[in-house]
Amino acid sequence: MLALEAMGGDNAPGETCAGAIMACEKFTDLEIALVGDSEAIAPLLVNTCAPVRKRLHLVHAEEKIAMDEPPAVAVRKKRGSSLRIAMQMVRSGEAQGCVSAGSTGAIVAAGVLVVGRIPGIERPGLGVPLPAVNRISMLIDIGATVRCKPLNLFQFALMGDVYMRKIIGVDSPSIGLLSNGQEEAKGDELIIEAREYFKNGRLNFIGNVEGGGIPFGAADVVVCEGLTGNILLKFIEGTGEAIYSLIREEIDRRFLAKMGMVFMVPMLKDLWARFNYEETGGTPLLGVNGAVIKAHGRSRARAICGAIRVAREFVNKRGVQTIAEELAEGVKRG
Amino acid sequence: MLALEAMGGDNAPGETCAGAIMACEKFTDLEIALVGDSEAIAPLLVNTCAPVRKRLHLVHAEEKIAMDEPPAVAVRKKRGSSLRIAMQMVRSGEAQGCVSAGSTGAIVAAGVLVVGRIPGIERPGLGVPLPAVNRISMLIDIGATVRCKPLNLFQFALMGDVYMRKIIGVDSPSIGLLSNGQEEAKGDELIIEAREYFKNGRLNFIGNVEGGGIPFGAADVVVCEGLTGNILLKFIEGTGEAIYSLIREEIDRRFLAKMGMVFMVPMLKDLWARFNYEETGGTPLLGVNGAVIKAHGRSRARAICGAIRVAREFVNKRGVQTIAEELAEGVKRG
Question: What are the two backbone dihedrals, phi and then psi, of residue B7, each rounded to the nearest 5 degrees?
Fold first, then answer.
């Protein structure tokens, strides 16, 4: 069973519950606990067909954590919040993993506080699979650990490596440190010191990667501090929206462009699908001792369903256990 | 007179000299010193018409600094390099400003070492005018000061404010600190401490700005550390290239898209012009005691000409003096 924190995100609980239904229709063995205000959730399930409905379980939560609450404080205070209850289900083993579209800060805080960290992991990292030309590339961290120590960056790399091998299916993923130049001398003290950790050669470390290399998939795993990753990820989303609005505005003004657009719709749809977070699904919070997947705050049903799929795969492929084992034993290749 | 360091960049000296010729054709009062290997440069000027040719002066330099040399060391050792000689011309007053398409690190090092800083400015900042929806927004710093102290960020804001008012012509430019969220609590210690400097209210400070706000022009001046700014800027360039290559590849595969493209060319050209660095020109190294403009390393003639135009304007509008005055007196508005 997976726990879905049903109250988080801009479109909860309507779209979160619709996403859960969609996922249960897709995966016929899947059971989902919908954690949240059961009075609000129950009516959303009335039209669900019986074989799906019986795999959806209501778990009532008295309160929820809003997007704009100071996350650490809210997680500590609101012991009856849907997020804490969903996380507790993971901790107790009642659920094998959980998904939330709530605020990043709250998910990270609750993950560390309630689920706990994998022994040996100092700080968790949120890794987002980014579409690059001809591949999926993971950017980690995008906001779990705002400022990092060198060891944190190394551990992000290690966890990203496991994720890319086990979940995405990439052999010997290449790892790059995001920096202001490819040369060894580039970067600040943090980056230069982090490089020392890679010298044992257990990971396929390729050195520094520049910002310009990301869209070309310069590395399978691109490692950076949470502050940088967050700024970059939001910039990507914002740019997509800005370009979309600019193109639409231009097309409204120009007749020929409008005609041209008609011919191009199939192509643009394909391109869009490659860069659309709804397709790539959720973002794993790596380093906590359970499968915790963050869905985008603006997720609609399809994106929630995608995040549930990611959680399911992460559980089935023993993502957490693999990280723990490789950390404990030293990474074994092949 | 402006000094053009003619040997820096991927297309030097052919394109740098062509850019200088273009600029002299455009501005009939402009004189340019071409600093570099005079044997290589002289032949490039033979077909230039007399009224332009007489405003181009050759200043010989024995050596040059390559893109991949460790910048600080190279600037110290190569006293006869074209970059140092161009900068010395600014320092001595022989040239009113200089332009180079050489490596960022070398330009920053030579700027600080040879031209010197404006009294009171602790670290220089490279500010790039970024096209956003409906406006030009300045991102500062993009790589002059990799890691910053809170005071550095504040001084970037102050210099960006002067640049936007004097050169771009924006009244009371809004200033934002690039962070992982808009809320006051977001950011790390650096950002939170930097905010203190803005409390005197002299600048139009609007608080934190997210990465997603940049393409929408969330602030006229977006302030960040050089590491972050550099990663972001290179990411922008890389994304443009990646999208361009993807679209071209898709269009080659699809007949209808190819037809559609024909209708869309005028629109795409306009959009491209808005986001093309060749149009926006050079990047001012703010905080050094002279007009120093960095052109893109890949600049062709048109971009060099744009950078020269920026240098000329910066000189004519007394950019350096204004920063120095406002820093000394306290910023006076209106």
Answer: -100, -5
